[in-house]
Amino acid sequence: MSLTLTPNEAAFTAGRDVDDVQRAVDSGVVEKRTRTVRGRTRRVFGRSELRFFRVVAGVEDDLTPKGRRKLYEAILRPRGSRVSVGPFEVDLADVDRQIEGRLGELQRIKRSVRTGPDGDPVLRGTAVPVHLVAALAEAGGTDEARRAYPSLSAADVEAAAQYARVYPKRGRPYPERSLKRMLRELALPDEVFGEPDPEVGPREVRL
Asked: Are 45 and 7 in contact (CB under 8 A)?
């Protein structure tokens, strides 16, 4: 089955940084492939590119751009289950097993999310926005996200963080602090304002 992945999906599946994936195309090492969706042309990646990114991980600096291109071309048009370029020999069957494992993980992450009533992704079984949980976890870790949403498990938070890395939020990002945390931080000590007037009552903080 042919694969057509976005740059972020390809980076996750290959275990690489998305900037490395994009740079390989911009530098001419990897062929540029595009697909038009709803009038927009987007860069996409297939199995050959995933194989290449998995193979060069950790040894990329040992290859010149010309050497990386030769390796990519060998993977693009393999003659059998193994390809070799100079001292490098690649077992494509083993690489494909690694890729299938990562694709399975990507599908698991996607299944943990559904589309909410307003069209934004939420964690399945909840009404909690995925990207909000991810923003809280990035700023304060899993514990911070779970303090804001006690019903979530650590696995829920991790799934939200992984989903947000592969499918970033469009538009304005969520704040990295929960409303509960911001309210806690507004609980200023009495010496800031002095003692409250018992006839007036406690002061109100309006947000």
From this structure: yes
**For 172-204, what is each residue's pLDDT tens digit?**
665 555 545 544 443 444 444 444 455 544 444
CB within 8 A of 127, min separation 6: which ones? Answer: 116
CA 204 – CA 159 distance, rounded (Å): 38
Listed in sequence order, the residues at least 6 apart from 65 whose beta carbon sits closer than 8 Å to its beta carbon are 27, 28, 29
pLDDT tens-digit series, residues 33-48: 999 988 899 999 999 9
Q: Report the relative pairing of strands 113-115 and 88-91 from DSSP bridges.
A: unpaired
Given CATH 1.10.10, say whether it is the number of domain 113-185.
yes
3-state secondary structure (DSSP) of residue 90: strand
Instruction: Find out if CATH 3.40.50 is the number for domain 7-110.
Output: no
SS3 of residue 2 by DSSP: coil
φ and ψ at residue 158, rounded to 5 degrees: -65, -40
Here the tokens at position 103 are 């694709």
pTM: 0.78
Q: How far apart are alpha carbons 198 and 203 in whole angstroms?
A: 11
The CB density around residue 92, as the number of other CB atoms within 10 Å, is 19
For the chain, the structural domain boundaries read 7-110, 113-185
**99 sits in which H/E element:** helix 92-111
